[in-house]
Amino acid sequence: MILEEIIRELREGKLIEDVLINHDWHEFEEAVADILKNHYFKTKLNYRFKTNRRHEIDVLAWKPTRILVIECKRWSNKRYKTSALLKAAKKHKERVEELRKLRPLFLPYKNERDCRHAC
């Protein structure tokens, strides 16, 4: 399990940035999903869906009181530009809005009102 390896390295005193640099993007997404599973979420990695176009969610997690739609980004050690971060956030918001239209059957809420009330 990737998460156990990451935790071990952190306990050895390594910085999170130094630990994560040794893992590729897929392992990073797996670690995020493992953290959520440890907090009793069900998860789907790389959830793909189509509305007016194709979309992909890196990590989709849910439990009776929460639904999380997560975009995992590993920015390089170089300074990232605020504009790139804003662009990524805007695209993520668009994906979330499209996902809300679809409401996958495995998610626990029957309608938006139920989700707003519980979330």
Run of helices and strands: HHHEEEHH
Distance between the termini: 30 Å
Strand order of the largest sheet: 1-2-3
Average pLDDT metric: 82
Distinct helical segment count: 5
CATH topology: Trna Endonuclease, Chain: A, domain 1
Q: Please identify the top-level CATH class.
A: Alpha Beta
Total individual domains: 1
Strand segment count: 3
User: How many strands, what sense, and barrel or not for the largest sheet?
Assistant: 3 strands, antiparallel
Proportion of beta-strand residues: 15-25%
Which regions contain 5 or more consecutive residues with pLDDT less than 50?
114-119
Q: What is the CATH architecture descriptor?
A: 3-Layer(aba) Sandwich
- Determine Rg (CA atoms, Å): 16 Å
Q: Which structural category fits the helices and strands? A: alpha+beta
> What characteristic shape results from the CA principal axes?
globular
DSSP helix fraction: 40-55%
Q: What does this 3D model show about the protein?
A:
The protein is 48% helix and 20% strand. It is an alpha+beta fold and 119 residues long. The protein has a single domain (2-118), classed as Trna Endonuclease, Chain: A, domain 1. It has a 3-stranded antiparallel sheet. The two termini are 30 Å apart.
Q: In summary, what is this structure?
A:
The chain has 119 residues and is of the alpha+beta class. Helix content is 48%, strand content 20%.
What labels would you give this structure?
Trna Endonuclease, Chain: A, domain 1, 119 residues, 5 helices, 48% helix, disordered C terminus, alpha+beta, 3-stranded antiparallel β-sheet
